[in-house]
Design goal:
- The protein is of the alpha/beta class.
- The protein has one domain: 3-Layer(aba) Sandwich (Rossmann fold), CATH 3.40.50.170.
- The chain has a seven-stranded mixed beta sheet, with helices on one face. Strands 8-9 form a two-stranded antiparallel sheet.
- Helix 5 links the parallel strand 4 and strand 5.
- The longest helix is centred in the last third of the chain and has 24 residues.
C-alpha cells in the first residue's frame, strides 16, 4: 500500500522546490499537449516514447522539452526494457511519471520502483471496463454514462487508487469513435488537474486506501442520462 508521504511528493524533499515530470507516450500525444498547455506548477523534464515515429515527440521538441526513444524491440526481455526505461526516467530526476497514451504494460518491478509517483489515465469509469477496448465494452454493456479515470498505477492492471473521474452521457446511436471522442475531451480536462494536484502536494491516501484531495470543493451537479423530454 502506498503511504501518505508517497502521494505528497516524497521525491522533492526540498518542499518549495519545483518538481519534475517525465511523460511517457506512444502516439500522437493529445494528452501530452493538454498537459503542456496547462502551465503546470512543475517542470516537464522529458518526454519518452517507445516508438520513434510517435507524433508527440515532435510536439515536445517544438516546446523545448527533451525527448528520448527506447524501442522495446531492442531489448532481450520486458524486464530489460523496463530497467532501461526506469534508468532513463531517473536520469531526468522525475518526481512524477505520467503515462499519456503509453502502450506498453509495465512490469511489477518498474511499478514498485515508482510507487506513488506513477499516474495513468484510463478511458472508462473504473473499476468498470478495465483493460483493452473500454468503449466497446461500455457500448456492449449498454451503460448510459461512461467516462475516464486518472489513477495511481499499481501492479494490478487499472486497479490503483483513483484520483479523479469525469463522466459523459452515452447516446443511443453512439459508435466507439463517437464515444471515444466525447471521453477524450474530458481526459484533456482532468489529467492536467490530477497532475497539478500532485505537484501542489494536495493528494493523500486515506487509511482505507483511497485518494483524498486537500481543500476539495463542493460536489458537482449529478449527470443524468438519458434525460427525458
Amino acid at each position: 500500500m502506498m503511504s501518505d508521504a508517497l502521494l505528497s511528493g516524497r521525491a522533492s524533499a526540498g518542499g518549495s522546490q519545483m518538481k519534475s515530470v517525465v511523460i511517457l507516450i506512444s502516439g500522437r500525444g493529445s494528452n501530452l499537449q493538454a498537459l503542456l498547455d496547462a502551465k503546470l506548477p512543475g517542470r516537464v523534464a522529458a518526454v519518452i516514447s517507445d516508438r520513434a515515429e510517435a507524433l508527440g515527440l515532435a510536439l515536445a521538441q517544438a516546446r523545448g522539452v527533451a525527448t528520448a526513444v527506447l524501442d522495446h524491440r531492442r531489448y532481450a526481455s520486458r524486464e530489460a526494457f523496463d530497467a532501461a526505461l526506469a534508468d532513463e526516467i531517473a536520469a531526468h530526476g522525475a518526481d512524477l511519471v505520467v503515462l499519456a497514451g503509453f502502450m506498453r504494460i509495465l512490469g511489477d518491478d518498474f511499478v514498485r520502483r515508482f510507487a506513488g509517483r506513477l499516474l495513468n489515465i484510463h478511458p472508462s469509469l473504473l473499476p468498470l471496463f478495465p483493460g483493452l477496448k473500454p468503449h466497446a465494452q461500455a457500448l456492449a454493456a449498454g451503460v448510459k454514462i461512461h467516462g475516464c479515470t486518472v489513477h495511481f498505477v499499481t501492479p494490478a492492471l487499472d486497479a490503483g487508487p483513483i484520483v479523479i473521474q469525469a463522466a459523459v452521457p452515452v447516446h443511443g446511436d453512439d459508435d466507439e469513435n463517437e464515444l471515444a471522442a466525447r471521453v477524450l475531451v474530458q481526459e484533456h480536462r482532468i489529467y492536467p488537474l490530477a497532475v497539478r494536484w500532485f505537484l501542489e502536494d494536495r493528494l493523500c491516501l486515506t487509511p482505507e486506501g483511497r485518494v483524498a484531495l486537500a481543500d476539495e470543493g463542493p460536489p458537482a451537479s449529478p449527470l443524468i442520462a438519458p434525460v427525458a423530454a
